[in-house]
Amino acid sequence: MLLNFQNSTEIQEKELSCDFGYGEMKNFSSKCLVCGQFHNTEDHWKFMADMPSKPDSLIADLMKMGAYNQQALDIADSISKADLQKALFLKMAGQGNAKRERLVNELIKQAGGLNEAFAAAFGHKSDEFFNDAIRSGGFTRRRFLRNVAIGAALVTLASCNNSNQAPEATTEGQPVDTSSLEKTDLTVAFLPITCASPIIMSDPLGFYKKHGLNVELRKYASWSVVRDAAIAGELDAYHMLAPMPIAMSLGLGSTAFPVKLASIENNNGQGIAVANKHKGKVKSAADFKGFTIGIPYDYSNHNLILRYYLAAGGVNPDRDIKTIVLPPPDAIAKMATGQIDAFILPDNFTQRVVHDDIGFIHILTKDIWESHPCCAFTASNEWIDSYPNTFRALNKAIIDGANYANKPENRKEIAAAIAPRQYLNQPVEVLEAVMTGKFDDGQGNSLDIPDRIKFDPYPWKSFATWISTQLVRWDYLPEEKANYQQIGEQIFLTDLARELAEELGTEPPQELLKVEKLQFDELDPQNPQAYLKEQIDKFGF
């Protein structure tokens, strides 16, 4: 900050003795002939004599003192012209930093409002504002000059650290306070897919460092290996498929190991890709009969969404096709060598087959279930209980990163950040096609779908409800163990995610559940049993 401000209470106390029409006034005699307030006319002229004749002239002096620069004035002028609302300005000046936003908000309060601060400090309206203020009797010279200074400070805050830049690791030049963190050196697992973007990019773009953490990212090839490493205690936290915490906590496919889903890493961002030899022959789900299709894991939304899609098209996913679990990095080679006809995987792989002229994109999963969750940030119950403050900081850093990733203007930067060998090891042009939604589908179409992938970290508990109904439908979860409400309440940390998002200055939903709208039906999360019965009755399996 270039300027220091007195405590607002202290200022107000000093002003009580000199404000016209306020506080305890001396030599009061009559109504002023100039402004109509109750003070001597002579006192009014004494007050006016001490005020600058042209407030705009203060700007030149402040520029000489270094309070302004031309960039700040240009920004102030654009703000005045756009007539931005306070909330928008807070977002701009706060840079997504809760402490910074509190500072901006306090300055605005001291000025009596955002408009007052800018009107006093900038532009041709300052004379008009100044005269109105004097006539109203509500401003002293000190308060007017203070608002000029506050206006300068607000514009300085808004003009430094462009909001499209990644965050600094320090707040107001000071090191991050890590005294409350139980540990700061962490190991977090990830798979090399775009779904892991918030976990991966938070390393090169500084979100972990911003929140006081030193994170080693450990790359794995398959979900079963991540699961085993988590159970063995080799990791602090994990990138997992959204259904995995449910499956692991309930002991599906492995020994029961309680895991919490802390925040969603990505929405949409998946697709069904088909080998080029089938081009022109696959138009709908019914055309997949007899195919061998790759999936990343049994307990994945890829598997569940594929089954949902095929069943609605009259294809029994347990009889009419063959599914094989394969590590995502192996998918390209297996399709190129004819070992699989199709796969449903993260979009960097669906786009890669187009890039390498191996296959084409049949459908994006967003067209099957708009804004569906894919991957999530997770940690074990035991680790969370042992390191509650560290867990909170880590989850907050990843939510911070997800919010940054959700802005379209940041997508190319993120694509470049996660492309290197130690992360995704993918061509930047492939990742940009996924991130920006501007891509070729391998069938001669150039598409522009901005929400091809999204990064909304809010873990709706209705996500858990839909996942659980499908685990029951396809015999992964015994119906007697499907306590739908309890699964969402115990495994999805929705309340904490909301709290952390609010601390970061965003406005997450307040509800826990919502109706999930899919291509062929809708899930009312209050009545999952009826939804499941309707699916089976309608499609036969």
Automatic annotation (TrEMBL):
Gene3D superfamilies: Periplasmic binding protein-like II
GO cellular component: plasma membrane
GO biological process entries: monoatomic ion transport
Main location: membrane
Alphabetical list of Pfam families matching this protein: NMT1_2 (PF13379)
Compartmental location: Cell inner membrane
Origin superkingdom: Bacteria
UniProt KW keywords: Cell inner membrane, Cell membrane, Ion transport, Membrane, Signal, Transport
Matching InterPro entries: NrtA/CpmA_ABC-bd_dom (IPR044527)
PANTHER family: ALIPHATIC SULFONATES-BINDING PROTEIN-RELATED, NITRATE_NITRITE BINDING PROTEIN NRTA
Protein name as catalogued: Nitrate ABC transporter substrate-binding protein
